[in-house]
Amino acid sequence: EAQVTQNPRYLITVTGKKLTVTCSQNMNHEYMSWYRQDPGLGLRQIYYSMNVEVTDKGDVPEGYKVSRKEKRNFPLILESPSPNQTSLYFCASRISTGSNQPQHFGDGTRLSIL
Amino acid sequence: QKEVEQDPGPLSVPEGAIVSLNCTYSNSAFQYFMWYRQYSRKGPELLMYTYSSGNKEDGRFTAQVDKSSKYISLFIRDSQPSDSATYLCAMTYTGTASKLTFGTGTRLQVTL
Fold this sequence. Notes:
The structure holds two protein chains of two kinds.
Chain A: E1 4-7, E2 10-13, E3 19-25, E4 31-38, E5 42-51, E6 54-57, E7 65-66, E8 76-78, E9 87-94, E10 104-105, E11 109-113
Parallel strand pairs in A: 2-11
Antiparallel strand pairs in A: 1-3, 3-8, 4-5, 4-9, 5-6, 7-8, 9-10, 9-11
Chain B: E1 4-6, E2 11-14, E3 19-25, E4 32-38, E5 45-51, E6 54-58, E7 61-66, E8 71-76, E9 85-92, E10 101-102, E11 106-111
Parallel strand pairs in B: 2-11
Antiparallel strand pairs in B: 1-3, 3-8, 4-5, 4-9, 6-7, 7-8, 9-10, 9-11
């Protein structure tokens, strides 16, 4: 089954404790991205990657890091999480970098930073 | 002002009703318009996709784009309780790095 898989689905942690949210897709997609979803603000892009070893900032990259060492994986790293990073996070992928291709989303990771 | 505006709802309708969901936008460069459906505790899933102006129909769903008014709509005919979800409009423009710009979503509840 074609899918985007995120782990963990839920995480409660404390300020300053480094964490990584993994994202993996099995569709051989070139383009992957991370979004956060907040009430009243909708989905906002954090980082995106057009291919292996190619990443770039989205609209809200502060406090986040990403890497793309393999085509299928695109982890999101919070080096020193803070409470304002409490949010619902989604990883997405699409087949190519062409903007007219639909994006496929994972089921989300709910992060709570205390 | 946000680039994409969407009424957050909630919108509650009886089963069988026709539902109209709308978004307005300010960036005239947008060319591709999408509607995503998001069930509780799930990721958004693509429902409809249109390019430029016009209508597109898929079963009970019709997507409409009016670029002159910078206005897009999603119509749901014969709404069902299973249509209860949050509907997100999204749009983008040509360019390899172009990203999706989302509306904030409209929560729809279809009651029996």
